[in-house]
Each structure stands twice: as structure tokens, then as C-alpha cells.
Amino acid sequence: MTGTATRLQNIANEIGRLSPDWRNPERYFENRHEIERELKRLARELRNASHG
User: Looking at residue 2, what is its pLDDT?
Assistant: First the structure.
């Protein structure tokens, strides 16, 4: 589970750095979407691990 904890810490760090980029407003939404995808991917992996 150390890898999972590290991934969660990395995601938390990314969220902490997330802020609007006034030169490229789309970047904020792209970064937010990437964080969302990673959280969903991690949740799916944990769900599969608990059923496997």
C-alpha cells in the first residue's frame, strides 16, 4: 500500500498547486481533469484489489 499512499500524496500536492493560469485558462481545467482521472483510476484499482 506504500505505492498507493505515495500516489495519494502526489495527488494532494497537485491539488495544492492547482491554480488558474491567466495566460492559458484552459490549462487549469486540463490539470483538474487529469487529477480527476487519476483519482478515478486509483479508486478503480483499489476496488478491484479488494474484490480480487
Answer: 78
